[in-house]
Amino acid sequence: QKIRAVYDSNPTKFKTLQNILEVEKEMHGSAWPKTGATLALMWLKRGLKFMLVLLQSISDGERDEEHPNLIRVNAMKAYEIALKKYHGWMLQKLFMGSVYALPYKSDLLKALEKGKEVKEEESIEKIHQFLSRVTPILDAIYEMYIKMNAELSYKA
């Protein structure tokens, strides 16, 4: 909502995500990047990275051989890569407990297909197509944050 609100306040001025970061850097001075849409986008990109790593892990066939319909292994991998280093002890423990509430892989794939019954192979192929389009965009956002020195490493 913060990102959208900033954009909506002046669509010409905030034409791109980079424009938002540049203008907020100027506006907020020493408080930047710990405020506004810059901070919201930072957490959004981390969440998106989590989802992309999760989907990539599923599409790569990584699984718990004893429980192949569970996605805990995939979620744990995604968490390790995308979010864990930004979470304090309490949030890490909460995540570890939350993996037991994850849907079955079959239910997740069905949800991604909007409830339609589709062969797993077809769903996995669609995930591959999605990842091939979205991953470069997310990589560009990460690069932008690094180049602008906007990445924060504090723990939530």
TrEMBL record:
Enumerate the subcellular locations listed in this protein's record, separating them with semicolons: Cytoplasm
**Which branch of life, at top level?**
Eukaryota
Q: Which keywords belong to this entry?
A: Cytoplasm, Lipid transport, Repeat, Transport
Q: Which Pfam families does the record cross-reference, listed alphabetically? A: GLTP
The Glycolipid transfer protein domain is annotated at 1-113
What function does the entry list? Accelerates the intermembrane transfer of various glycolipids. Catalyzes the transfer of various glycosphingolipids between membranes but does not catalyze the transfer of phospholipids. May be involved in the intracellular translocation of glucosylceramides.
This chain's protein is named: GLTP protein
- The species this protein was found in: Burhinus bistriatus
